[in-house]
Amino acid sequence: MSIKISSFMGRLGWAARKYFPNLASNAYLKLQFLTRGTDQDKYVDFFLKQDPLPMPQVVNIETINRCNSTCAFCTANVHAEKRPFMKISDELYRSIIDQLADWGYKGHLTLYGNNEPLLDTRIVELHKYAREKLPESFIFMSTNGLILNLEKLRAVQPYIDQLIINNYSNEMKMHDNIQELYDYVKAHPQEFEDIEIIVQMRYQQEVLTNRAGSSPNKQATEKVIKETCLLPFTDLWITPNGKVGICCCDNLEVTDMGDLNTTPLKEIWEGKKLQACRTAIAKGRQNYPFCKHCDFIDAGFRTQMIRRIMAGDIEGANRAGGEEKNDRNNRS
Fold it and tell me: Rounded to whole angstroms, how far apart are CA atoms 42 and 313?
């Protein structure tokens, strides 16, 4: 496929995020809520009327709950992480993938949450198992690229459709190892024709969303967010201990929708806890305490997916994304 560089609004956007961080964040979010709110409302209504419920469109499995970066907006950065160290067990991981295969899952899969996936030394083998069991799923990997090199890229390449490299920096410049990787891929496109690689230029001190109050550089205010949210309707969020949370904003693992050590995956997705959460949020975030002040909104490929689903294009929804996954709220 290709390797591309992406930066939201180019140098102008970078400057806005660097010199006017709160203004840039609030303006961006206001725009997203304004332009995407109708689609979200329609899909939430569509989802709740289906019997059986639609499958998740994105399954996120955090295999290790650690990161090696210092991004100011993330609770999982090396200075802010509070969770006890945890890696998912091989047995539990295989069970999750096997259950997805038995369910006939063909959607998106990422072995990533609020972490750096390359810190898990098993990451290539974990991707290999997922690809063997879920040959029709769109498997993508997000990394900050700090420990990425050509050898690691070649190792994981056969098992993923897309690699997103979030180049976090205080200047709009690639890290040396990422620049080297970029130059090599550009010079040898035939070697990487089966994978799409995106280098996202990200400002390390950027202000994004408040993540339900967990973001270190943007705490939640008393403002009530009345719009609905897509994530409980599109994403299955799995932490290394096997717990299912409400979404990526629950980095401190406050919510508990089920335990995959004791309850089947499909049963949790269709279960009373998640469904009660969805029913409440469908009428506005103010109806669910965890989400009441959260200003997160998906600005990327989930919107593409729900549009295609409502149009009856399930296969297209399963392949949605590609280079358009480069939304500013990417969580690596």
Answer: 16
